[in-house]
Design goal:
This protein is 62% helix and 5% strand. With 474 residues, the protein is mostly helical. It has a two-stranded antiparallel ribbon with strand order 1-4. Strands 2-3 form a two-stranded antiparallel ribbon. Helix 5 runs antiparallel to helix 6, helix 6 packs antiparallel against helix 13 and helix 12 crosses helix 13. The radius of gyration is 26 Å and the shape is globular. The structure holds protoporphyrin IX containing FE. The site of protoporphyrin IX containing FE has 27 residues, from helix 3, helix 5, helix 6 and helix 9.
């Protein structure tokens, strides 16, 4: 520590009593595994998103009112355009560094959502949702939903032809809500689409409401990680329930995270320069009633778009009180069921296997047949729906009629996931049986026995009661 910094720290410590708590934080042990960096990648891309987003708001015009573009892009010079589209054109072609910041922001948005999804998969497959982390897991599900909303509203702000099509679909989705659909759509969109209010409202969602919710939720999320200690993979010969194998926050973990954020900054900037991101000047402004070909949303919305494309056009009345339509079931009920299933899964696993006590060591999903089946079933379903979002492209490339392509996806989505789930359930049950293992119900029992961490020899009887809370692993 430099003399000046030491002097500053001493005088702050005299007044604020920092030494003890900061030493406690600095000495906090973090287990090491590459997959534990996924949460940090999501976190650091969020930092880049906020930093570049602030720059973009300086030039963005949240309005659809007509404006004449005058600038270096000859294709549009002198053309009357919606204000939002015009401002993005000007930002991209007439503001120094504007296109670079826009592209870094776009790249960071993809990385943020991709890292959050991979982080969630890591949590789900390894069982990091087990007690005491259920609350943090549910908070995480809330976070990923907010990330999707941030992505969708951000994708809509340029008001280009693709964005407009996406907003139109979102509007119809809200309208499809039985009984209250028209009112909800009115509240969110400020009237019948296309309204002049949609872009100013999406702007407020994207730069204020949603980021505030995300930053608040991530702060609580990280506080809980700090408070509950981080899980770890089993280390041979170490009681992972009582002790943590890892490195201290300062300087080791800090150095690793600092390197990671620099790498992320560098890679995002490189991608902004070398990746040919979609150029809105080629898409053109959104003109209500016009839809371009190959109108796919961003990849993280593919599964919802795919569900809307393949779901049969049904509509039925419920006791004459309300009408339920295909778009409502495909675009709202189905994603709702997937998220509800993900939210309830930790409690189901605990109930089905009679799990007891706290779990701090990660488990192999193949040692927990139910988890292997549910996660593979769910994600193969989401992946198949995502593939269905490209049905028009696949039909054109394969020469198979779009109707047949839709039917292929309908059958695949209905049969594929359950068959895969049943197959992996059978495989992992057989695998346990062939090794004479059963699913462990108690971590301390599991730690002290042979076999995978999630499973123990079938003959072993669990200890009477859960021992006192962990002491050595502070
Ligand atoms: C905006 C997105 C998110 C950010 C920025 C974020 C950030 C983090 C960070 C930095 C960690 C510690 C390092 C690590 O384990 O990766 C972490 C841990 C954790 N996160 Fe997230 N996370 C996000 C979304 C999620 C989601 C979607 C879930 C689950 C559905 C989730 C559940 C958890 C849990 C349970 C832990 C504790 C992990 C453990 O102790 O092993 N997080 N998160």
């Amino acid at each position: 520590m430099t003399p000046l910094f030491a002097l500053l720290f001493d005088s702050l410590d005299e007044r604020l009593k920092l030494r003890h708590p900061s030493r406690k934080v600095a000495n906090k042990v973090f287990p090491h595994n590459w997959s534990f960096l996924l949460g940090e990648v999501a976190l650091f891309s969020l930092v880049v998103l906020v930093a570049t987003g602030v720059f973009l708001t300086m030039f963005y015009r949240p309005s659809t009112a007509p404006v004449v573009y005058h600038g270096s892009l000859e294709l549009y010079d002198g053309t009357t355009l919606p204000g939002a589209f015009e401002s993005i054109l000007r930002l991209s072609h007439d503001v120094p560094g504007g296109l670079l910041f826009r592209r870094i922001h776009r790249a960071a948005s993809h990385l943020f959502i991709a890292a959050s999804v991979l982080h969630m998969l890591r949590i789900l497959f390894t069982g990091a949702f087990r007690r005491p982390r259920e609350v943090n897991y549910l908070l995480g599900l809330g976070l990923i939903t907010l990330a999707f909303v941030a992505g969708f509203t951000g994708y809509s702000l340029p008001y280009d032809s693709l964005a407009g099509t996406g907003i139109r679909i979102a509007y119809s989705e809200l309208l499809s809500f039985p009984v209250v659909g028209d009112r909800v759509a009115f509240w969110v969109f400020g009237g019948d689409f296309p309204t002049g209010d949609v872009i100013p409202r999406f702007f407020v969602f994207h730069v204020m409401i949603v980021p505030a919710l995300i930053i608040g939720a991530v702060s609580v999320h990280l506080l809980l990680v700090g408070r509950q200690r981080h899980t770890q993979f089993p280390t041979h010969g170490v009681d992972g329930h009582a002790f943590i194998v890892g490195k201290p926050l300062w300087p080791a973990q800090f150095a690793e995270s600092a390197t990671l954020i620099l790498w992320i900054g560098g890679l995002l900037t490189a991608s902004a320069v070398f990746v040919p991101w979609s150029d809105i000047s080629l898409l053109g402004p959104y003109v209500p009633g016009e839809v371009g070909n190959n109108a796919q949303p961003d990849w993280f919305m593919f599964w919802i778009d795919g569900a809307l494309r393949i779901f049969p056009p049904l509509e039925f009345s419920v006791l004459g009180l309300m009408t339920v339509s295909g778009p409502f079931v495909a675009g709202i009920v189905l994603p709702g069921m997937v998220f509800t299933g993900l939210a309830l899964y930790p409690f189901l696993e605990r109930k089905v296997y009679g799990l007891r006590g706290e779990w701090h060591v990660l488990t192999n999903p193949l040692d927990i047949p139910l988890r292997a089946a549910v996660s593979l079933g769910t994600f193969s379903f989401v992946l198949l729906l995502s593939a269905a979002a490209t049905s028009d492209i696949l039909s054109r490339l394969s020469g198979i009629s779009i109707e047949d392509v839709i039917w292929i996806f309908r059958v695949a989505c209905l049969l594929g996931p359950p068959v895969l789930a049943a197959g992996i359930y059978r495989y992992s049950t057989k695998r346990l049986r062939s090794r004479g293992l059963v699913v462990a119900t108690d971590e301390q029992q599991a730690t002290s026995q042979a076999g995978g961490h999630g499973a123990v020899p079938a003959a072993v009887t669990p200890p009477a009661r859960d021992p006192s809370p962990v002491s050595g692993g502070e």
